[in-house]
Each structure stands twice: as C-alpha cells, then as structure tokens.
Write a structure and sequence with these properties.
By secondary structure, the protein is of the alpha/beta class. Helix content is 39%, strand content 20%. It binds adenosine-5'-diphosphate. Adenosine-5'-diphosphate binds next to α10 and α12.
C-alpha cells in the first residue's frame, strides 16, 4: 500500500510518498512559492533530484505538479495515480471537534471551515486548500486528516483548562490544545518499544525542541499535559516566540511600545524568544557558535532555554508521579548535545545519570541512549517522523 502524505501551507506544499510495506519513503518534495512569481517543485525519487519550474497559481496546480513528478521518467516512482491508496493530510488545529484522525467528507470540510479556521488562521485554511486541490485532481481517492492536536486530546480537564470563567471555555473553546502531537506520539511510542515495558506502566517526558518547541507528559502511552496552549505561543521560549509571559506585562509593553493588542501578540510570536534575548539569531547553531566566542547574551538565551525545558521536565515528573525516560527530538533535540546536557544537569534527584560520551556522539538517525547503563531514568534521542505517523494513521483508517 502506498500513502501520499501532504503538508500544505499558504505558499508551500510538502509531500512524501510512503510504501507502507517497508514504511520507507519512495519519493518526496516541496512545491514552493505557490501563488507567487517564481514557483517551482523540488522533487526527489529514484535517488535523483529534479526541479520543475512552472507557474503555480494555487494548490490544485501544485498537486497536479506533484502527481506529474511522481510519474516522471527520471524521478517518478509510480506508473499511475491508481497505485496511491489514500492521501493523509496534516492539519494543525482540531478544536474539540475532531478527537482523532478523520476521513474527509463534505460535512467534515464544513465543520473544519466553520469551527476551526479561527483557531489556526494561518494553518488550517491553507491545509484545506491542499485537501480541496487533491479532491479536484484525485477524484474520490480516500483522504484522511491527521491533526497536530489529536494526541493531546487525552489531557484531563484539570490540565487543559485555563483559570478563566468556565462559561467562556464552553462558549468559545478557549483552553489548552497543544501542538506537535504527531511528533510526541511517534517518539513516545518508539520510547515505549525501546524501554520494553507495557505502555500502561510508562511515564515519559517528550521534548520536541526545534524552531518551535513543546514538551509533553506521556503517562501510560497517553498525553496528560503539554506546554503549548490555545496557540503555539505558550510554554518554553523558542526561536522567535516568547513562551509563557504574564498577560499584564504584555498590556504594559503594548502601551510603552505603542502597539495594538494583535501587534503585541505578533511581536511575541515573531520577534522574541532566543532571537529577542540574544539579538543575534533564532537558530541554535548560530547561538552556540557566538556563545563559544564569548557573546554573553547568546549564552543567556541558551541558559534560559535549557532552564525552562528542565523546569517542565520536573513539573511533568511531578504530574505523573515518576519518570522512566526523557526523550529529545526535532532539530535541536536530535542535534545539540550541549542543550541536552544543560537540560539534564541537576536532574540526578530524578534518577538521571548522563553518559557524556554517548551524549556527544554522532546523530546516527537511529534511537540513541545517552544516559548511563545504571541510570534509573533513561535519556533517549529519538529522531521524529511526523510523515510516517500521518501515513500510518491514514493507512489504518482506510
Ligand atoms: P522546525 O521544524 O520547527 O522549523 P527544526 O526541528 O528543524 O525546526 O529545528 C530547527 C533548530 O534546530 C534550529 O535552531 C537549528 O539551529 C537546530 N539544529 C541544530 N543542529 C541542527 C542540524 N544538524 N540540522 C538541523 N537543525 C539543527
């Protein structure tokens, strides 16, 4: 069975064609600059790469281009569209309307548009354009929606509610939803397999540390808490996002800087985080290079990040009543030993004993144990694979 995984943004569309028998990637690529001059598709398949330059005014044309590339004589891997069993679409926000992966129907599309667009105005409308483009080009091929928020739907009410008037939660759906769910799901499942314990007996903290970062508490294989909230702005400070901040400080800042409320939120999303603290970069590779040369604000940004992640590891160990493993994943989590060491330092009281050499070892793309054999709590690096989760969920549904 072959599943096409589509991740559509407002001006880009990424895809992977996955063979479910081997769970290997047959082909992948990215259509860039949709609706903008100079659009193109960079496609990989058969061990080759090819650029298709063509005007791509909308997502329907983008999907047409992808399907042509999948059947191309150089980078193509299929003879016809019939070889694709189904399409799995990445969707960001589900609100409380979709608790799990859902097949696309006209009713589902209506609910998505009417109820979830306002929850993720940058992401969901773009993803729906991807779905509708596929429907136009691929006819009645089964399509599934896999939500970033689904894995977090098992959080108990006392974890996801904010301390606002209960009626406002009911009326407007204002609560914590969490994000990066497919990643937290994938790495926690891999960790459970690695630990060789029954899922119900495990307590794991998963740290998805990338440009956007979130940490989840996964107890018995289910998410019981996560750091991102109603939007991805909450939790630890990130590349350009501030993370948690006192709302009254935001009002004060907005007044001082002459910003409207939505301008202030935009500032917190796009100009703060480690970028704002360092004044140098949102990219951890730059921060580490500059800190090594003595830049104190870059070091401060790194210290703040590690401290905040550590604080959530401790909080979630308390929330779960114990800890079997800490998992690091995504760009920073998989590639940055200094951040992992800083997060885990001082966690000996939680049974963590780091293996310095293993932590500094090369990223092999496989699961790596970076705690000592004697460490009661395991520390693992697990490369994330959100596309594979989307493909698995889609295959299971169809
Ligand atoms: P996102 O998917 O949220 O855009 P990533 O998971 O790709 O982000 O993470 C990007 C971050 O990972 C950057 O801060 C970058 O510096 C850091 N990073 C460190 N080492 C690497 C590496 N070898 N490859 C990619 N990203 C890396």
């Amino acid at each position: 069975m072959k599943i096409l995984v589509v991740n559509a943004g407002s001006s880009s569309l990424k895809y992977q064609l996955i063979d479910m028998d081997t769970e290997g990637v047959l082909a992948k690529g990215n259509v860039e600059r949709i609706g903008i001059d100079g659009s193109f598709l960079k496609a990989k398949g058969n061990g080759k790469e090819k650029i298709f330059e063509k005007p791509v005014p909308d997502h329907t044309v983008a999907i047409e281009l992808v399907l042509n590339a999948l059947q191309d004589e150089e980078v193509g891997v299929i003879k016809s569209m019939d070889e694709i069993t189904a399409v799995g679409h990445r969707m960001v926000a589900s609100g409380e309307y979709f608790k799990e992966t859902t097949l696309v129907t006209p009713e589902v599309l209506t609910t998505l548009k009417e109820k979830t667009f306002e929850l993720a105005p940058l992401h969901n409308p773009a993803a729906v354009k991807g779905v509708e483009g596929c429907m136009k080009v691929m006819g009645d091929k089964p399509m599934a929606l896999v939500f970033d928020t689904s894995f977090h739907q098992t959080m108990p009410k006392h974890a996801y509610l904010y301390g606002i008037q209960y009626e406002d939660y009911e009326r407007y759906g204002v609560r914590k939803y969490g994000f990066h769910g497919t990643s937290h799901k994938f790495v926690s499942e891999e960790a459970i397999k690695y630990l060789g314990k029954k899922a119900e007996d495990t307590k794991i903290v998963t740290c998805h540390l990338g440009n956007g970062s979130s940490i989840s508490a996964v107890k018995g294989g289910k998410c019981v808490d996560t750091t991102m909230g109603f939007t991805p702005l909450a939790g630890v400070l990130m590349g350009t996002r501030s993370g948690d901040i006192d709302v009254s400080a935001v009002e004060f800042l907005a007044q001082k800087k002459g910003l409207s409320f939505s301008e202030a939120v935009n500032y917190l999303n796009k100009q703060c985080g480690v970028q704002g603290i360092s004044g140098v970069s949102s990219d951890f590779r730059d921060l580490i290079a500059e800190a090594d040369k003595g830049n104190e604000r870059c070091q401060l940004a790194l210290d703040m990040f590690a401290y905040q992640v550590k604080r959530y590891v401790g909080a979630y160990a308390a929330a779960m009543g114990g800890l079997d493993a800490i998992v690091f994943t995504a760009g920073i989590g998989e590639n940055t030993p200094t951040v992992r060491a800083a997060v885990c330092s001082g966690l000996e009281f939680l049974g963590v004993e780091m293996d310095k050499k293993a932590n500094e070892g090369k990223n092999t793309g496989a699961i790596r144990e970076i705690s000592t054999k004697a460490s009661k709590t395991k520390v693992l690096v697990i490369p994330t694979n959100e596309e594979l989760v989307i493909a698995r969920e889609t295959a299971a549904l169809v």
